[in-house]
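User: Okay, second chain of the day. Same drill as before: sequence in, structure tokens out.
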Amino acid sequence: MGAQFLADYLKPKNLWLSNPTWGAHPLIWERAGYTINQKWYVYYNFNDDSFDFDGMVKCLQAESSPGNVVILHAAAHNPTGLGPTKDQWKVIADLCVQLQLFPLFDSA
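Assistant: Same drill. Structure tokens below.
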């Protein structure tokens, strides 16, 4: 429902998904009926099995545009189980405001 609502009213050019993400996220947005570019932000460091906070921030700063939607996992990121600290969430919130991104939270 959130994807359909945002596709209809916000009409974002880009949707940002974490790499990796829950497999249904891309499909949900495809079914919203609009052509929205699906892009991937850095989330997981495959070298040491950790959350790549710096990579995420740098990717969104360099490549996102105002009005883009960014999918965030509220807790227990699917499929990694890793998530930001309280201080990192504050930075992510500030980043969304600064870059004019629309955060959509997946809360399982």
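Residues 2-106 form a domain with the Aspartate Aminotransferase; domain 2 fold (CATH 3.40.640.10).

User: Thanks, on to the next one.
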